[in-house]
Design brief:
- This protein has about 475 residues and is mainly beta.
- The protein has a domain of about 325 residues: Porin (Beta Barrel).
- It is about 5% helix and about 45% strand.
- The chain has an 18-stranded antiparallel β-barrel. The protein has a three-stranded mixed sheet with strand order 10-14-13, with no helix packed on it. A two-stranded antiparallel ribbon has the order 8-9.
Length: about 475
Amino acid sequence: MDGVVRCMAGCLSLMVLLSFASGQEPALPAGLAPVAPAASEPALPAGLELPKPAEPALPMGLGAPADGPQLAPPRERRLPEGLSGFWELRGGARLQDDPREKAASIGETRLQLQYDRAGESVALKVAGDFLYDPVLNAHDIDLEDGDGWFDLRQANLLLRPGDFMDLKIGRQINTWGTGDMLFINDLFPKDWNSYFIGRDDEYLKAPSDSAKAALFSDLANLDLIYSPRFDSDRFIDGRRISYWNGGLGRRAGRDTTVDANKPDDTFRDDEWAARLYRAVGSYEIAAYGYDGFWKSPAGSDPQSGRAVFPRLQVFGASGRGPFAKGILSLETGWYRSADDLSGDDPFVRNSEVRYLVGYEQELARNLTGGIQYYVEQMLNHDDYQRTLPTGMRTADEYRQVVTLRLTKLLMSQNLQLGVFLYFSPTDHDAYLRPKASYKIDDHWIAEVGGNFFVGKDDHTFFGQFERNNNLYASLRYGF
């Protein structure tokens, strides 16, 4: 693994090259070139000749010495072709005292370098982040958890063996589905720590080590993704964000981090994901399939007490297209918990059916809005209740969540104001994400935002994070 890191870091640490171009000005089209004065033009009478005006002298210090070297034209400096990235400072602080976490929610400096090289039948992409993070204070590299001074985001090769097929191999970020920050059939890893502490939204999606085949036809298109080893979420484990610990019956954090038994045998603990999709008029419809594991811990070993990732299969469908003055999206998925099909094992999460309806529309000039209604329905709920040990909290059969997004662009669209709200009428909790970003110029972007959690109970999904309310700010230079 260290060799891979050194190799990728070497690819990313390319030296900035200097390049300049010079050439002759193109000739003017025929008929537009200046015409020399005719030799037969009559001379002015004696004494009426106009003196030839002298050119004004340059200000002192700007003229070239008569016998010295002439000033050279300025050279254009640019990065090597295909190299881009950004440098960023991002800091944040908690708004409440949490004895189990640090007062700072985030405090890091990050340099991302990305290299893209494309040809007719092959393309290379490498992207990685060099960062220093005193909040977590873990500098040893762990590419699975994203810990350490280097996080390899992408390193893949895209092959195009024909017009009917694309093949991408290596570390990549995959996504599909219709949800806005809600995921049903998108069973690719997420980084929930990044989302809740105020990193850029792009860091919610964590990378996968996989091979993706995209097959195209006039009838339908098919995406197949295979990961030879399970890629879990970068889940809440207490090192950054305190959480509800059911075994202890209280919130926990750095004092009791989650010790998960993660499936990690290559080719044995693998994952498959598939999407079959096509356009029907103005609508895109899709069918999905997944075979692997719950992406975050969804059970525990009663003997050791360690969190586990039970087997999971998911089958789903979605549709998206114009409706009224906006865009309507529908999505559903059946979560088949393979290690607890009957629903009578209280230490493994039951099977579920999930539903999502979403609608987005431009409400006014430079103002857009979106709303979603999401439901998780636990199957075999009666069997679950019957076998639940005495004293364990009973989960509801239905969990409902409503989301609202508003985005406003101002100042020639250089200032973006946004708010995203999650509200659960069944859990009686909510999560609010306000954000403002300003594009200073073509390179600099400043951003401020916050993460606010409220809940009636300590054990609900958003309510458990109530001690993690935070404000953050960032400054990014892109190149």
